[in-house]
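Hi, here's the filled form for the chain we discussed.

Project: internal
Contact: R.S.
Residues: 72
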Amino acid sequence: MPQAARYLAHTDAGHCHILEARSFEDAAMSFAEAHAPMAEDDALRVIVQSEDGGPEHCFVIHLDSETVEACA
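And the returned structure, exactly as it came back:
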């Protein structure tokens, strides 16, 4: 099981938090559950990056089903 790492997660509106998670996907879901404003529909777009830098990873969180998928 991977160790937790620190990630930066934010919405397109710029609402950003640092959090610990085991993967980029877990970070996106944790952010959506704890910090994201309520979306107008079922889907919320969350961008995640390692706290150490590197590429950004974009995910769509489906709030009703609590599923995560990569942005198209």
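Let me know if anything looks off before we file it.
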